[in-house]
Design goal:
It is a single chain. Helix content is about 50%, strand content about 15%. By secondary structure, the protein is α+β, with helices and mostly antiparallel strands. The strands form three sheets. The chain has a four-stranded mixed β-sheet. The chain has a four-stranded antiparallel β-sheet with strand order 2-3-7-6, with no helix packed on it. It has a two-stranded antiparallel ribbon with strand order 9-10. A hairpin with a 2-residue loop joins strand 2 and strand 3. The longest helix is centred in the middle third of the chain and has 37 residues.
Length: about 400
């Protein structure tokens, strides 16, 4: 499905499907999943049945080709009506775990891994970050040494979304331990249940229903056919993968900001103080308009960057577009931060109560501002792309 074939009706239909899914399949169970610390696998299957997991993937692998305009509508709508970043991160962790395989993996590897994930039968995760490494991918220390028809993997990964449940782990490894820097980095798909893989759950400020893990690889033997592309090409794959992740995070941030506005407006109309609804106080109306202003600017910028990303013009997605994605990600998450703070303030004591969307989103703001590249990294990357 090309961008030229997407109509307003297509976008509306997908938004309505996503809203129904969020209200019927997510909202009634979210608090239980937050307490459980993970999502049920059956939720992946139900999302797959509606085609939500396969959006943007080739038909031959069980997906539905779709431009960013559709994928961003899905992300923003589910965020708005599901109101959980942890749920979004885990339910769609394959959207960062599978793209390197789809773009660079062999046909055999794609056929073995991708269809089962898009059917919701298996879960895919991406493992890049290491203890002490943070955003500095070029200094990673996890090694994968070739031994005949296998790689022997040793090392650790941390902050891995869906890490406790993942059946497939797309991991950044150093296939040439003697080569330092980005040139020695490769991508390898590690079966989650292979001997020598161990996992520890990580407790977090937010994203409680997302199973985030510390992974350890102790002499894990992985078939050499699970190498993604060629050795030494992993760093380029990672950089390309980040653009899509950041654009999706901007769309999610927009949806969360809209939910904060929705709930704040609804509360302001219901809540009465001194004999009048609090929306009748000028200060509350102005706070809501401050939220609205930031939401609309984020929406306009997201639409513009998305349109360029969906265009067939390769030059439209050059260095300047990458800079736009980085700055948009910062702007969108700052909008989310402002709206979450304003919503909690308007809701008052109720906004401090667990179980409200505003309270949950307030706790999840920081991971959105850090994940996919911190604000500081985004500014530096954008400045370099613009030649400053």
């Amino acid at each position: 499905m090309s961008d030229a074939t997407i109509t307003r009706e297509d976008l509306q239909m997908l938004a309505e499907t996503a809203e129904r899914f969020a209200k019927t399949e997510i909202a009634p169970h979210l608090e239980a999943w937050e307490k459980a610390g993970e999502l049920p696998r059956d939720l992946h299957r139900r999302a797959a049945e509606l085609g939500l997991l396969g959006l943007g993937y080739p038909e031959a692998l069980g997906g539905t080709p779709a431009p960013w305009s559709l994928r961003n509508v899905l992300a923003a709508t589910l965020a708005r009506h599901g109101a959980s970043g942890g749920l979004m991160a885990s339910l769609f962790s394959h959207n960062i775990g599978l793209p390197p395989i789809q773009r660079h993996g062999s046909a055999e590897l794609q056929a073995e891994v991708i269809p089962g994930v898009l059917r919701g039968e298996q879960i895919s995760a991406l493992a890049i970050t290491e203890p002490g490494g943070g955003t500095d991918v070029s200094s990673l220390r996890t090694t994968a040494v070739r031994d005949g028809d296998e790689y022997v993997v040793n090392g650790e990964k941390i902050f891995i979304t869906s890490g406790m449940r993942a059946d497939w782990i797309t991991a950044a490894v150093r296939t040439d331990p003697k080569m330092k820097g980005p040139m020695g980095v490769s991508m390898l798909v590690i079966p989650g249940h292979a001997a020598g893989v161990s996992r520890s759950r990580l407790d977090k400020m937010g994203w409680h229903c997302s199973d985030t893990a510390h992974l350890r690889f102790d002499n894990v033997r992985v078939p050499a056919r699970y190498l993604v592309g060629d050795e030494g090409q992993g760093f380029k794959m990672i950089l390309t993968n980040f653009n899509g992740e950041r654009l999706s995070m901007a769309a999610m941030s927009l949806g969360f900001s809209e939910r904060c506005y929705d709930d704040a407006l609804d509360w302001a109309r219901q809540r009465k103080t001194f004999g009048m609804a609090i929306i009748d106080h000028q200060v509350i109306r102005h706070k809501l308009m401050d939220m609205k202003m930031r939401i609309e600017s984020t929406r306009a910028w997201l639409d513009a960057v998305t349109a360029r990303g969906d265009s067939g013009d390769k030059s439209a997605k050059g260095a300047e577009w990458v800079a736009q994605v980085c700055l948009l990600k910062n702007h969108a998450t700052q909008t989310m931060q402002f709206c979450a703070d304003a919503a909690v303030q308007i809701l008052g004591g109720m906004g401090f109560m667990q179980g409200t969307a505003a309270e949950r989103i307030y706790r999840e703001v920081k991971v959105m501002m850090i994940g996919g590249g911190t604000e500081e990294i985004m500014k530096e990357l954008a400045s370099r792309q613009l030649g400053l």
